[in-house]
Amino acid sequence: MRIAGTIGQLLLIGACGPLLLGVLRQVRARLEGRAGPGILQPWRDTRKLLRKHRLRPRGSSEMFRLVPLLLTATTLVVAVAVPMLTTATVLAPIADLFAVVALLAMGTTTLALAGIDTGTAFGGMGASREMTILALVEPTLLVAIFALSVPSGSTNLTAMVQSGLGDPAHIASPASLLAAAALVVVIIAENGRLPVDNPATHLELTMVHEAMILEYSGPDLALVEWAASMRLTVFLGLFATLFVPWGIATSADPLSLLLGLVALAVKVLVLGVLLAIGEVFVAKLRLFRVPELLAGSFLLSLLAVVSSFFLA
């Protein structure tokens, strides 16, 4: 049944990633007074892209072709490693904080390499901006989650979740609240959401993520977009796992897995809706103001670590 729980979590994230993206777009459309394309539109776009031919820019190397596969593979590994559905998973022993963050950073780095490999001005510009953001986001992610590992005495995510379930007071502590605020900024920056990036536009002077994938088409673009939607789901699931762990199955029996599946879907959906609502009321920051926001989130994560040691 441990394998069943791992497969169930993988299928949920893989199938519901595009649906979550569709929900976010639909919520924003409704709040802005538009009808919206419907929550199934990302899957329709994927089906359309899969039917098109794959094109490669002249002069690009094999890196450009392999990046969609590497990005999808790293996202899938993180999707099954993080204990979002149940703590009784097959990969629980390797669900370490440093391994998960390294895999997420690897996916971002490979996409930046693809942008550079195209040899276009937009690709290089987007890659440069993405690596600048990553250099500030990755330490914040590491330090914020490390603050949560102090009560459990382990950097294993499964141990952190079990510690939170066993002592809910740690979740409401000042260290957890500071870490949660820092992780919110990380989620926004890593997934190219407002106010860091606007996924709904293709303005040359402002885009970051879109600039790196302009040369992709057909099945390759479908893989990149699918991986991006899964990354958003993984980040929201990780946030829910660390700060709202209730509902996670602690055993591998079918009923517990079913309840954990429902709880995970509800928590990710609620977080996604809140993210979409927040985007309606904020404007995109100027590019040179983004490092200030990310530096502030890193300061919050440092304060979370200090609080976790002195207020433990």
Provide a descriptive summary of the structure in words:
With 312 residues, the chain is an all-alpha fold. The chain has one domain. The protein has helices at residues 2-31, 41-50, 62-81, 97-117, 121-152, 157-166, 174-190, 209-212, 218-243, 254-280, 290-310. Helix 4 packs antiparallel against helix 5 and helix 5 (121-152) runs antiparallel to helix 7 (174-190).
* Annotation, overall tally of beta strands: 0
**Silhouette:** globular
How many strands, which pairing sense, and closed or not: the largest β-sheet? none
Which series of helices and strands comes N to C?
Answer: HHHHHHHHHHH
Radius of gyration: 19 Å
Mean residue pLDDT: 89
Q: What is the helix fraction of residues, given as a range?
A: 55-70%
Distance between the termini: 36 Å
**Which range does the strand content fall in?**
under 5%
Helix/strand-derived category reads mainly alpha
Parts with pLDDT < 50 across at least 5 consecutive residues: none
How many H/I helices? 11
Query: Number of folding domains?
Result: 1
Give the topology, please.
Elements: H1 2-31, H2 41-50, H3 62-81, H4 97-117, H5 121-152, H6 157-166, H7 174-190, H8 209-212, H9 218-243, H10 254-280, H11 290-310
Helix pairs in contact: 1-3, 1-9, 1-10, 2-9, 3-4, 3-9, 4-5, 5-6, 5-7, 5-11, 7-9, 7-11, 9-10
